[in-house]
Design a protein that fits this description.
The complex is a heterodimer of chains A (about 350) and B (about 250).
Chain A lengths: L2 H4 L1 H23 L6 H21 L1 H6 L7 H34 L2 H63 L2 H15 L3 H22 L4 E2 H19 L3 E7 L7 E2 L5 H9 L9 E9 L3 E9 L12 H14 L4 E7 L2 E9 L10
Parallel strand pairs in A: 2-4
Antiparallel strand pairs in A: 1-3, 4-5, 5-7, 6-7
Helix pairs in contact in A: 2-3, 2-6, 3-5, 3-6, 5-6, 6-11, 7-8, 7-9, 8-9, 9-10
Chain B lengths: L9 E6 L3 H12 L4 E7 L2 H11 L3 E5 L7 H7 L6 E5 L5 H6 L4 E4 L4 H15 L23 E6 L2 E6 L5 E5 L2 E6 L2 E6 L2 H7 L5 E5 L2 E4 L3 E8 L2 E6 L4 E4 L1 H10 L1
Parallel strand pairs in B: 1-2, 1-3, 3-4, 4-5
Antiparallel strand pairs in B: 6-7, 8-9, 8-12, 9-10, 11-12, 13-14, 14-15
Classes of the chains: A alpha+beta (about 350), B alpha/beta (about 250).
Amino acid sequence: MHPVLNGEGSLRLYLLAWIPGTALLITLVIDPTLQSLPATLAISVPLAAVHAFLSLAVWYPCRIAPVRETPMIRLVMMHGIGAVLSTFLWTALAAGTALLVSRYFDLDILWEKFQRSMPILFAAGMLLYLVAVSLHYLLSAFEQGKRHENRALELRVLAREAELRALKAQIDPHFLFNSLNSVASLCGPDPEGARRMSQLLADFLRESLRVGGEQTIPLSEEFALARRYLEVERVRFGSRLQVEHRLDRSIEAVHVPPLILQPLVENAIRHGVAHLLDGGQIIIEARSLGDVIRLRVENSCDPDRPRSSRKGIGLSNVAQRIQTLYGRWGRFEASENENRYVALVEIPIGENRNRASA
Amino acid sequence: MSSEFIAPRVRIVAVDDEAHARALIREYLTGMADFELVAECSNGFEAVKVISRERPDLVLLDIQMPKLDGFEVLELLDPKPAVIFVTAFDEYAVKAFEVHAIDYLLKPFGRERFAEVLEHAVTRLRPGGSPVDEASPALSRPRSLPLDRILVRNDADVVIIPAAKLDYAEAQDDYVKLTVGEASYLKQQTLSELEEQLDGRRFIRVHRSYIINLDRLAKVELYAKDSRVAILRDGTKVPISRAGYAKLRERL
């Protein structure tokens, strides 16, 4: 829907501004000395009204062909042809009206004057049409700017919310209480182990609280966090937990949002290895694919495990954050095949990295 | 009862998938003369086997375990043992009481709380106290429905049937016969109970004695006047009652 037609008020305002102006212009073109004003007005006012609506119709071709995405030649051709055709029709209409009016008022002189001024009228019509085109482009640029502003604001709010949720979901209560239970169990037979376990747990908690407050952290810190987490879980699961790291050292300095990899690892344990009698393997992979980095966590899983309703809160959190931060330049995917589960995240680096939030 | 009567020690089985957690229970029990730890299990399968064999007085049952969780273990046991649930997170506490556990322990727990819970259990186990409401149907879980897997005991073994793999179920006296491809299993349950638990969008009770998986349905044939039969993908014929046909038609 045309923005001007959207509200009654805006249409009235537009007609009020456009019709008198155009009518005056036409009047001056046909009859510069204003000798037969009433008759000339009888021609110019309806013509101005027709032109006003003609100019509104320009909105549709303008919308199909936005300036920035359309080749110049196509723009010139399209609006050129549009201007010539519509102005031609409009001038023909003007001629018809002029003929009728001069007959009615019995003013042959007006008809003669009109014939003489026809080329100028045609040129003026063209000009006005092209002015309408540029005004429409201006209007759409303005509206787009407003939309972008809103979108950016929305994204910022969403990002903040996701951040908060991520933090809350971060410290999984099962993880915390089970780990504390391990500490309690170790106290009797292995006090040294208990000390080490509480150390590991404290390190992990401290570190995740710290990075949770950052906008981005180097990938190396995210790796370190995942490692700490795994060390704690290692105490609980013992040999049931096997981990393989395949990390590309060259991307360690790349900045990523915090707590993007760790939830994938946590998911691999909670919904993967923890459900296997003999445990299983987790493969953590990070590599660069040109303009994106890919983090991938693969784990063995039991296809017949119970599907709890709490499943994947951590994962959907990651998915949402990637979507909010990077839009279509980011990617999150989780898939399951027989007894392997794979979760992967792709984060743009380089020029696309702040596209979505910009 | 004579005063010289020495109460037998309370026989306990502890079930937890974490070695450390089992070690802690073992350690606590060592100092308690009235109790005897007769077995430890590290997963639900083992628990079902061992508990059926040992018939302990009391089971300390972890909830989150591989293959079968604590609630599922309990569901598969008949008769039901007296149970104390042991869990790290109290989102399950309410559920523990719904399945009539005597009590529950939240990890990590200290020696005092452990002793207290066990003493409390003993008073309920002694003659006069009723450990669990034997007749209560609530013992078969208030688990989240619809069921995504069906558990069946096959002697000592436990079979897990993902609901999607079930072709059809047939009532046979006190049992239901579950057919999964070539295999079939008997489970002690009524067909109506199973019908309630299964996903109604996928499974339809087409007859007093039959529930079919809609995904397996190939076609419906007129068998005689007013009576129809469902032909499944593998050629199996299942009778359809008039009410069953109405339900089926509504769904398709």
